[in-house]
Hints:
46% of the residues lie in helices and 18% in strands. The chain is globular, with a radius of gyration of 19 Å. The model has no long low-confidence stretch (mean pLDDT 94).
Amino acid sequence: MDKVIILMAAWQGEKFLKEQIDSILAQDSIDLQLIVRDDASRDSTLEILYSYARRFPDKVVVYENKENIGATKNFLNLLCAAEAENKDKNIYYMFSDQDDFWHHDKVRKTLRRIKQMEKKYGKNTPLLVFTDSEVVDPNGVLLADSFCRQQHYNVKNRSFAHLLMENICQGCTMMWNMSLAEKIKIPKEGARYHDWWVALTAAAFGKISFLPQATMQYRQHENNVVGADCFGTYVQQRMKNRKEQKSALAATFRQAEAFKTCYKEELDQQKKQLLQKFCEIPKQGVFARRKTVVDCGFYKSGITRNIGLFLNL
């Protein structure tokens, strides 16, 4: 039976953690292991985690960070350690947030899609699948039946050029194969989000597939690292805070520089040129920056986001 390793970065998660772990352990007929690293929580998160590890020693493994390092580094360090420990095994990986709720067939459906991809492209090809999700409030009340539609994401454009500018792959819905796990390098600095970094690596070296089904409930509350506000609220917030948007765009270019440092010698010529042009955008004049975006297809999803992009370039 195929094995799936689920990686969870936990921090101050006592409110919803039990419900999420229960939903993971209730997955249909799947050999899975949940590996959790707590990021120096001060609430009862660790107590909850160790209670599950004692009850399910073959299913739940818990580690602790001595100091808080943030979600992105925590997730990427988890992935690096898990991949190193499971070399030469046929493992599939997933990320999990601590506060969602997985449908009972989430892992099975996603695994089925990625195995279809392996049949088509071969197991040696780095492959990633992401799915849709439902958006719920803290009490589990449905807010939107499709995260992707709510956010107006162009999930059909999974190109390297698009992924350089915008991440469309929701990390808590993703699964990837061993070939992609082996390809991922962890930068010291520069990765904006763990899921974006993994998706960008998949776009650079392999294939990405979207499964247009909601496989989980994404819980929207005040403590989300990246929220799922309705699109209208998203637009209003972005229009009010240009400084924040320019800062986010600068972080996106820093991520590309980090990606170039890690992978510049391994990319094919076309992607190497795309990455180089993307990294040069901040050094160009105002008109040249916009021309490069148009010429290379460094777009975001939809007209509204791209208007904002061009205003902030």
